Amino acid sequence: MKHLAYLNKFFYKYRWRLIPGVLFVVASNIFGVLPAQVIRVAFDLVSENIDMYRLYAGFSEQHVIYDVFGAGLLLFGAMVLVLALIRGLFLFFMRQTIILMSRHIEYDLKNEIYTHYQALSMAFYRRHNTGDLMNRVTEDVSRVRMYLGPGIMYSLNTVVMFVLIVYAMLTVNVRLAVYSILPMPILAAVIYYVNNQIESRSEKIQQRLSSLSGFVQETFSGIRVVKSYVREAYIRKNFAAESEDYKTHSMGLAKVQALFYPIILLLAGLSVVIVLYVGGTEVMRGNISPGNIAEFIVYLSQLMFPVMALGWVTSLTQRAAASQKRINEFLHEQPEIISVNGIKKTIDGRIEFKNVSFTYPETGIQALNDVSFNVEPGQMLAIIGRTGSGKSTIANLLMRMYDTTGGQVLIDGIPIQQIDLNNYRSQTGFVPQEVFLFSDTIANNIAFSTDILNMPEVEQAAKDAAVYNNIVELENGFQTLIGERGITLSGGQKQRVSIARAIMKHPQVLVFDDCLSAVDTRTEEEILQNLGRVMNGKTSVIISHRISTIKNADKIIVLDEGRIVEQGNHDTLMELQGAYLALYEKQLLEEESV
Ligand SMILES: Nc1ncnc2c1ncn2[C@@H]1O[C@H](COP(=O)(O)OP(=O)(O)OP(=O)(O)O)[C@@H](O)[C@H]1O
């Protein structure tokens, strides 16, 4: 429960919804209790006057008595109706204040979590899977809202109604009141227990459903592999097994739900029987009138819902507390990459790695070991090396996705940690190895870094990335939707759109992480030539496997197992007759054999 205390700040923020809400709960309940008393008076009126009416049988006065009697009953009926209408009005306002408050808090909480997520570093995203992140913003927040809205509202309602009804009962007859209330705690306990059963079973079903939809999604995403390996029958069998599991759990839930209402009706009926029996004996003793029995039965029917709500609200609050605990876990995570009062400046692009070592915190793998190099503004640095040698790690450190575990990265001679993070990243263009494009138009994907879509600039970026001709050939050109909702671009086209996105930023430092691998050598040459123009006076870092990509770079570093084994330009490295030359010859051989 202590986890829910986090939400108290929101109650304070929305106090001018909560306080009137509480008053509306009280008012609606007062008007909810009054009709029972009107019914009691009406009932007594009937039982007192019926004898008189019969007494005048055969006399003309019987007619008059009937009229007076009928008009009286009509008046009572109208009173009950008016009271119900007033109650309805207050119920409307009660929901309009408390439920609306819960929706406002839900909105605030979702935004708070999302904003916090965005501040967290890469390592956090490596530790937690996307499903988990999504669940906490959606499922868990919804559960918390159930506590904030219906939970609070029904708890207040139950307490107020209980106090008013029990008070009204006690003023009529203490013995009857005690007997009537006796089954209530049992009813609440049964509902709490059954509700918990339903919730835990529903949760299991939800998990099965997630796993079923995950399974379906994956097999459809990989349908090409499934079909080419002729594994349809095998996949279908697995699907049937998953479905069977879901069905079994659903049937279990249906059984508990089927028991739920009969049990409630049984207990409710039992209360009425007790009232009739104990009330009857009290009437015989002359302690109460028959109207009081009618009054009690109305009270009982009114108490039934709050008592049911009590069991329901208890389990709902428990679940909300568990969800808030999960939310708090993430909200209390501190971003590893921070920049407090960082320097804001236009960077020149001088990069220096000074004895940099780096070990990934998630796996403990040492990816870089004592790496030192420097690049001047206007230069192109190329990084080459075998797979897993640490090339992407250099890009990660340059983009400050991680901080070094040893040594220092300096930008314009300033340690990278001292530069304002957003200021720095906004001047850096990065094309990752794994291309990611949003399900949006090509134009919006290229112009991702800007708030206003400037089409001439987008087109120029596309031309520089040598993808312009491919785009204009499409029916809708730059307005073509890509991704889940649209067409699929080829691997090389995707890479070039993502290069255009980085160029569009007019960065001071541009980092290409092996993003020309799916582009043919002629197009690659065109892009590199364009880059020479666009990045004139600025710094480029090109990571590649291919020597053809990097041979014109001002400086080339050759990495192996996290260490720099050679550095220089193409000619000096060739002269060294070491790792670079070996790589060159190997690639030359491969090209010839193709
Ligand atoms: N996010 C990560 N978490 C943990 N370990 C990682 C992570 N990324 C890379 N590594 C490890 O760090 C080492 C260097 O990886 P890196 O991605 O820098 O190599 P690379 O030279 O870019 O390889 P490739 O050419 O295949 O992309 C590898 O052993 C890899 O397993």
From TrEMBL:
Domain ABC transmembrane type-1: 21-319
Domain ABC transporter: 351-586
Gene Ontology molecular function: any one: ATP binding
InterPro entries in alphabetical order: AAA+_ATPase, ABC1_TM_dom, ABC1_TM_sf, ABC_transporter-like_ATP-bd, ABC_transporter-like_CS, P-loop_NTPase, Type_1_exporter
A matching Pfam family: ABC_tran
Protein name: ABC transporter ATP-binding protein
Residue stretches spanning the membrane: 21-43, 63-93, 152-170, 176-194, 258-277, 297-316
Lipid bilayer topology: Multi-pass membrane protein
SMART domains recorded: AAA
Keywords: ATP-binding, Cell membrane, Membrane, Nucleotide-binding, Transmembrane, Transmembrane helix, Transport
Gene3D superfamilies per the UniProt record, alphabetical: ABC transporter type 1, transmembrane domain, P-loop containing nucleotide triphosphate hydrolases
Location within or outside the cell: Cell membrane
Species: Mucilaginibacter limnophilus
Keyword Protein biosynthesis: no
GO cellular component: plasma membrane
